[in-house]
Amino acid sequence: MIIFDLLMMFIIAYIVGFLYYGLYRNITARFQRRFGPPIWQSFYDSIKFFSKKDATSHGWMFYLGPIIMMTGSVITLLFIPFFYDNQNFSGLSSYGNLFVVLYLMVLGALGNALAVGVSGNPFGVMGVTRGLSRLFAMELPFYIAVIGLMSINQSADIATIASNQTTINAFAYPLLFIGALFSFVGMMGQSPFDVVGAPVEVYSGPAVEFSGKFLAILMSQSAIFSFAKLTLMVNLFLGGASGFMELLAKTFILFLFVIAFGSMYGRFKTPQSIDFLLKVPTVIALVGLIFI
Amino acid sequence: MQEGFLTEQKVLEGDLNSDTSHKSSVDYLMNWFRSHSIFVLAYGTGCGAIEMPPTFTSRYDAERLGIRGSATPRQADVIIVSGYCSYKTLRRIIRSYEQMSNPKYILALGSCTINGGMYWDSYNTIKKLEDYLPVDIYVNGCMPRPESILEGFIALQKDISNGKASSWKKYEENYEFYRKNQEAVLGKKVSPAYDTDWYLYDGGA
What we know:
heterodimer, B: five-stranded parallel beta sheet
């Protein structure tokens, strides 16, 4: 029955991811004092892009880019258990631990970087270089926080880390949490760290040359990947979840915080965002590592 | 048979919008999705560009209708030609339009795109945009206010969901006509030949 389990995880992440993305656009609109689109607007957009006639071609590597990205997102999702006390919806998490997840999270971005390079669009290449240099800065505080959690629990198993929290890790180890949260805002592509797809600077960056079905795949994977990242964060720091309502509530609170944070701040320049991530959250997380 | 201006108008519009091809229920569904998700390439060609920021930002909020800006022609559905078009700009508009993926639509703002407007005797602007690119919706005025632009968008949405907005097909079918007119003002090197079968020889799948 593991096939059924994996399929359900995929479908849930797809639906909830698009719902959250619609809520993101709606809530951002309210922050800007306007009405905003319907909640399912992103879903309409993706269906429309799937129905577009022509798509750009720059050779087979260009086709592979969005597919590698989708694969990376879906596989990451399947290695993260939804609930800590339930065998259902645990996916492949018994076959791989946190190390595998952290490795797979980078896979999609790297695959897409190759495709964008093949397309030869200078704005796409600029977006990719921005993204990869930000990625290294973003990973450092997050990895430090994760190392702290693994040494506390003496385990790299996500379900174990989630179930071992008597007081949730966000309150028990606040410095680790704050360090990880800064890089999490960047991972969700929110201001002030949204240098990769900046519309007026690099014309949507890595997605610049993708149209039609490729763009639809990229949108779907971004929705799924967002939900995977939220679930990982909930498992690591917010005490995990034992039911769907708890999972949705916790991921939504985290998501709302990220949106609010992103709506408040303008965009950093690329060097500024890397500087900030390498200085403030890294130091906070290191101090937190000392106080374990 | 009725006569008079309104009848002629109906005949003219009927010819412009005639699309008798067979449509299945999936087509109707897809047209509904297309009409509710419009990505706009707001390329500010003329003075009309000044009316677009208020249309898309908080005051008039076009996003509540599913209309939002897109960064590149590859992702866009609608290109707005906002006002007068000099020869120099026309070259860029054609280039951007041909990079967009089908189905794609053109929304023309202002009197200048209809008959030249106040640039009717200018030496370096085109007078009728329709001779060079197929237009789906005209929004007249000098300049049209954001309300008019939104109304034009709603009319376009209706046309899309009825399957009437098919100017991209018209461009493919009458390409020689458009290309001849484009070459008449821009010279021989307009842009690479527009061909919908390009993927067969462009190293594609």
